[in-house]
Amino acid sequence: HRHLLGIEPLRPEEITTILDLAEKYVDLNRQPVKRSKVLKGLTQINMFFEASTRTQASFEIAGKRLGADVMNMAMQASSIKKGETLIDTALTLNAMHPDLIVMRHPNSGAVNLLAEKVNAAVLNAGDGKHEHPTQALLDALTIRRKKGRLHRLTIAICGDIAHSRVARSNLILLGKMENRVRLIGPPTLMPAKIEEFGVEVYDDMRAGLEGADVVMMLRLQKERMDGGFIPSEREYYHRFGLDAEKLSYAKDDAIVMHPGPMNRGVEIDGVIADDINRSVIQEQVEMGVAVRMAAMDLLARNLRELAGPKEVMV
Ligand code: CP
């Protein structure tokens, strides 16, 4: 693959290859000196058109640890503000010969459009309600390390499924790896025809969590509810917020995940989020850096193959 635009085009063995390489970067990241040269001489541009803490910071750290020259575009201060289109922005940056472009954008499909216009390898850092592939990969790595496998697990994804690119990328990945995926949430926040993805749908937390190995909580994505029904937080927490009582329906050794940012007291009780025996939220963040290093390393190998063996001496 030239780009990482989504989980959809990846084969199960390609997912395993990325996770296996990410394991090596987990080890590197735990060393006192965290340095590799696999992206030395390459230029990485990060373009975030939506707010981000984890994804932006980890892509920047990942690129720097691999030796790339990393530039974070301040999109609020860019000429997009003066009416320049995404395509013209992409063509402008393309003329500066970047090798890797990481983009987050509020519109589904915007990252695919960018990939058609530039020579760089493009990595999707989240596009609208479509995909967030590196999130699904870091979640998969976390699950594989905690559960010892990434197949034949029962995984409950809970909350606002309809507006969640994290849920979409995860259910595609977990389905490809032959897990049983359950989606739990109010019918108003469930996408139409989602059963076609081979998932089970529940509107009751206790029934959906029964016997689950993994419980993945999602935030209410109010920024994508554009005028539609927004549930009251109090009512939502009562019915769908993860607390100790609802979690007791899952397996005794079930892990609790959240991609962040989380809203304590809305989709999850803060006590559960902080319970180091159940919550793996901080491990997810750690795996995020390693998975992004692995993804950029693999794409850079492809770039080198496309460019041929010659290095240009200046
Ligand atoms: N999980 C995630 O994408 O978090 P950020 O929005 O902070 O990057």
TrEMBL record:
Pfam families: OTCace (PF00185), OTCace_N (PF02729)
InterPro entries: Asp/Orn_carbamoyltranf_P-bd, Asp/Orn_carbamoylTrfase, Asp/Orn_carbamoylTrfase_sf, Asp_carbamoyltransf, Asp_carbamoyltransf_Asp/Orn-bd
Segments forming domain Aspartate/ornithine carbamoyltransferase carbamoyl-P binding: 2-144
Pathway(s) this gene product operates in, as recorded in its UniProt entry: Pyrimidine metabolism; UMP biosynthesis via de novo pathway; (S)-dihydroorotate from bicarbonate: step 2/3
Coiled-coil ranges per UniProt: none
Organism domain of life: Bacteria
Domain annotation Aspartate/ornithine carbamoyltransferase Asp/Orn-binding: ranges: 153-298
UniProt keyword list: Pyrimidine biosynthesis, Transferase
UniProt binding sites for L-aspartate: K82, R165, R219
Positions of carbamoyl phosphate binding: R54, T55, R104, H132, Q135, G260, P261
Catalytic reaction annotation: carbamoyl phosphate + L-aspartate = N-carbamoyl-L-aspartate + phosphate + H(+)
Protein EC: 2.1.3.2
Subunit structure: Heterododecamer (2C3:3R2) of six catalytic PyrB chains organized as two trimers (C3), and six regulatory PyrI chains organized as three dimers (R2).
Function text: Catalyzes the condensation of carbamoyl phosphate and aspartate to form carbamoyl aspartate and inorganic phosphate, the committed step in the de novo pyrimidine nucleotide biosynthesis pathway. Reversibly catalyzes the transfer of the carbamoyl group from carbamoyl phosphate (CP) to the N(epsilon) atom of ornithine (ORN) to produce L-citrulline.
Family: Belongs to the aspartate/ornithine carbamoyltransferase superfamily. ATCase family.
Protein name: Aspartate carbamoyltransferase
Gene giving rise to this polypeptide: pyrB
